């Protein structure tokens, strides 16, 4: 999986199994995505 931050300054690639996925529905995530929630995960 590949991704990047909203401004494009930080990019990443993850190989292998993804850890748990979470859904955030704070006002910032709703405004940024134009949706009711944003899917997210935490990796080290």
TrEMBL record:
Keywords: Metal-binding, Zinc. Residues 1-44 form the CENP-V/GFA domain. The keyword Transport does not apply. GO terms for molecular function: carbon-sulfur lyase activity; metal ion binding. Belongs to the Gfa family. This is CENP-V/GFA domain-containing protein. It comes from Vreelandella songnenensis. The lineage of its organism: Bacteria, Pseudomonadati, Pseudomonadota, Gammaproteobacteria, Oceanospirillales.
């Amino acid at each position: 999986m590949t991704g990047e931050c909203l401004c494009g300054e930080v990019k990443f690639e993850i190989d292998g199994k993804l850890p748990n996925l979470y859904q955030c529905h704070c006002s910032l995530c709703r405004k940024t995505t134009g949706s009711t929630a944003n899917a997210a995960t935490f990796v080290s």
